[in-house]
Design a protein that fits this description.
The structure is a homotrimer.
Chain A: E1 2-3, E2 23-28, H1 33-48, E3 52-57, H2 64-67, H3 85-88, H4 93-107, H5 113-122, E4 126-130, H6 131-137, E5 148-152, H7 154-163, E6 166-169
Parallel strand pairs in A: 1-5, 2-3, 2-6, 3-4, 4-5
Helix pairs in contact in A: 1-5
Amino acid sequence: MVETSTDQKQEAKFVPQSEDRKKLLIVCSKGTLDMAFPPFMMATSAAALDWEVHLYFTFWGMDIVTNAKSLKISPLGNPSMGIPNILSIIPGMTSVATYMMKKKMKETGMPTIEHLIKMAKQAGVIFHACSPTMKLSGVTKDDLIPECDDIIGAATFIDMAGEADVTLFI
Amino acid sequence: MVETSTDQKQEAKFVPQSEDRKKLLIVCSKGTLDMAFPPFMMATSAAALDWEVHLYFTFWGMDIVTNAKSLKISPLGNPSMGIPNILSIIPGMTSVATYMMKKKMKETGMPTIEHLIKMAKQAGVIFHACSPTMKLSGVTKDDLIPECDDIIGAATFIDMAGEADVTLFI
Amino acid sequence: MVETSTDQKQEAKFVPQSEDRKKLLIVCSKGTLDMAFPPFMMATSAAALDWEVHLYFTFWGMDIVTNAKSLKISPLGNPSMGIPNILSIIPGMTSVATYMMKKKMKETGMPTIEHLIKMAKQAGVIFHACSPTMKLSGVTKDDLIPECDDIIGAATFIDMAGEADVTLFI
């Protein structure tokens, strides 16, 4: 893993792997189970279509590359789930909702986030951890899953966005 | 409505309607009343400026094309609304907040989501439903509003993003 | 400050400052303390790399340009924070979580949002307030911080997005 601190902005210039391939860059800023899926669905699909794909894990999204197994979904304040808040507040309901979503996903043949991480990696997707977030949250290099390719700051991210055909903030 | 399953990725190649017009693609992933607005405000504005506009309804955003009338806003966990959580948890408060927002919108002359759907459609905005989300949530073709033009998977979405001038994830 | 109402769409054509510089446009739609950071981290980094940067404050993001000091973070319904909902609901917990996050940020040398606003402005970042949001929420020109450069509608936003190299919705 290559660590590029924010103090070395000058050296952090992003070099795309190829000039020819389309490039997709996704910022993964959410740490809930539901919002962890879209980046991986898009990343694996784009990689299958031979795009160069980069995932930038920042803020709550850092949880995906430190503790994917523990991601949860909260029915609280999410009217789309249809569970009344007064029930959602009961201790254990977040775990129940998470269990139910995982069960539903298994039944419909959807891969888990842990599996999607491996699928994305095998397809060549590049994983970047956000250095300012690590500093703020106390996450160290050793806490990151081995799939992380490097640790980069906002300047390198901007360079990458400047080279990407599509950049999404999720 | 044309259904393109994810099993037919090869055929799902996106063909833009025109080479000349600017293209906007918006992923609608949220199912709350507040976050349903930005995609339609942008879509109708872009269409008025003669852009080709595509809306891709996925995850919680599927609620917009199945049950727009029932979209709610939750004051829980949303400090911007200024309602203390201990009040927001009271049964019925989500409905009260939703009613208040709709009333405010009506007073200031803002169209409803149902109206915006019709406005967008009349302006030529193209509606896509996400097939993996439908599989996961059990939504069928018959549950979709007639404004939906087709059902597509992630591969077709990536093709579309590759052709778009602007792609946003909301 | 230049006010461009949505009734003057024709005149609102966006003129980029320069043809040569890369352009970044960020929609700031969230009013929580955590989600107020990413736009400013990216904006200041891009400006340091000589990009032309535009921030468009809309929906809950309007709070950033009216009352940045009061932005809060809610642990409710955010499993990433690891605080059980049954504790988060206790009156005052939103303030406690906000205090804790601000303390953590100070300890790790991260600037406050108020400071980031000044840093962004000094670096040439351009601030736009969303006119439909102001109408809906009753915010007037006088409520906006002086850093706001103008008030624009969705049509001008679309023009800007059409000229930008990267457009993000946060």
